[in-house]
Each structure stands twice: as C-alpha cells, then as structure tokens.
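It is worth pausing here to work through a concrete case rather than discussing structure prediction in the abstract. The textbook approach is simple: state the sequence, then state the predicted structure, then interpret. We follow exactly that order.
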Amino acid sequence: MEGVGGDGASAPAPLNQWKNDVWRTYQYYLDKSTPHSTYRWIGTLVLLAIYVLRVYYVQGFYIVSYGLGIYILNLLMGFLSPLVDPELEVSDGPMLPTKSSDEFKPFIRRLPEFKFWHSVTSAFLIAFLMTFFSMFDVPVFWPILLFYWIVLFVMTMRRQITHMIKYKYIPFSIGKQKYGSKKASASSSGTRGD
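Step two, the predicted structure:
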C-alpha cells in the first residue's frame, strides 16, 4: 500500500517536467520568430486559409467566425491606437504632432506588433480547434452576422481613421528607420589605409 501512495506522489513530477519542457520549447521558437515578421504573418495567413476552408467545407460555425471577427477587430483597434490618446490625456511627454511646425514624436502603439500577431494567430488556432466540436455549431443566418460585423467595422474604423488624419500618424512601418547616409559610409571606408 505504501508503494501505491509513493507512485502517486512522484507521478506529477515527470508531468510537470514535461509541461515545463514543452513551454520552454514553445518560448524558444517564439523568441526565434520575433525578428522575422514577414514569415510570421505568412504563417498566420496560411492558418487563416485553413480555417476559412474548414468553415467553408463544413458549412457551419458562423457564430465562431463572428466571435473571431469581433475579437480581431478589438485587437486591430489596440494595434492602430496610440499608447497615449492626445484627445483624452494631456501629457508632458512626447505627443503626436498636430501642426506642420510641431516636432515629430515617435508613434507608440497601445498593442505592439508582436503581441498583435501572437493574439491573432492564437485566436485563429483556437477558432480552428472549436470547429471540431459540434456544440459550437449554432444554427445562425450568416448574412445577418456579416452585416452586423461590417457595420461595427465601419463605425469603429471611421473614428480611428479620423483620429489618424487629425494627429497625422501612420501606424504601419516596415523595419527600423536608418538615419545614416550612404555617402558617409562610403567616405569612411575610403579613408582606410590598406
């Protein structure tokens, strides 16, 4: 009897070790993918295509797709919004320029790109897994859901786009800006004595 109790106490230790190893491996690959934003988004688009094909062939799970669309719209709003909204909060720190004479301040997102990508990819994966459980296949008239989502998208994005025009910021940028010129680097390499 003592052997049975002893095995039960030691059984969670290998399970916890296995979970820890899986989590570390996941974090390792997630960290390695950080600088490769183009490939990350291509992978997310592939996952989106698989999800769309699954919903199309099953002809169901429209309520899951609607919930997914609302969640992604919420994430998009966080991604496109500045960390400090100049309309709501007066700050002593950097602000977005409103006049051409204002100094440019960097755009800081409320939701960084990596977290946005990770949340969108996780949402697509969870929604894909939900399509394998029939309890989530609620019968709905999908054109109504699509219409509701389009109205919600237009209403929220209209406010966001007017905000972006008013404060003159573009939240999309590819890569880091470089301030050095090519002439400076060419002249410095020409002064070396070989």
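Step three, interpretation. The mean pLDDT is 75. Residues 142-166 form the longest helix (25 residues).
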